[in-house]
Amino acid sequence: YDQLALTTGSVPNRLPAKLGGDLAHVFTVRTLADIDRMQPFFARNARVLVVGGGYIGLEAAAVAAKLGLQVVLVEMADRILGRVAAEETANVIRAAHQAHGVDIREGVGLETLLGAEGVVIGARLTDGSELDVDFVIVGTGIRPDTRLAEEAGIDCDNGIAVDALGRTSAPGVWAAGDCASFPYKGGRLRLESVQNAIDQAQAVAGSMLGAGADYVPYPWFWSDQYDLKLQIAGLNTGYDRVVPRQVGDAVSHWYFAGDTFLAVDAINAPRDYMVGKRLLEMGKPVTAEQVADPEIELKTLLRG
Predict the structure, then answer these.
(1) Count of CB atoms within 10 A of residue 40's CB?
(2) Is 0.85 topped by the overall pTM?
């Protein structure tokens, strides 16, 4: 090759064998094949344990609950969405799950899965309780797939380390997507999102062809759970306050670090999401008082 792009993505974290991760009917969610394997277990009143209270675990729990399964979700941290969303957003999501009968247990981890003849039949939790289960879904995050890069001697730092153009430490080798970490605000950042996988790959492809333009991310994410559509623009890393806004059934939470607007979580509030996203892309300042005031039409903040 003259130039090579590594877009190896990521792999899901699995339970270790000592916790019963090697038992049958224990699933992760990453590919369509994963969905096909677990689909036969989604029968009404089947008992499912979901391990992990991030977006993957919560979305799996929502699907199962809507189909009439008995769902228990355990999150070893103090609350769901602890790494990615403010408590205000987590409260809305938790209430929706509880309204649909999901048993959410926070501050409780998995001690071990229980099996019989190589098949999972139950779980013992860190609070000493035991559950009977028909299958388990593990949603404890992903890790960058750096195996090929490491074997080739390419520098890795929370993923394959690239510069602003997407170049790795090996001549003629580039990387993009879930597997790549890139310079961002004086540190390194790795994004796990559809937006980044597409936008960074396009930017790196351009650089491979000589465009020479740094990749500048404008992150956005989404999660659909029950009748809630959560749309997120920006990165809330380093926030020190959350400003709520509610107009009717539309709710949004705006993240600030001092006076700097960082990100917005919009729940059934597509207008708030679009305005927040445009403000971030334009670099326009906005105050907490402006976004909190329901009398202010948010789109007016884009003018001038």
Answers:
(1) 9
(2) yes
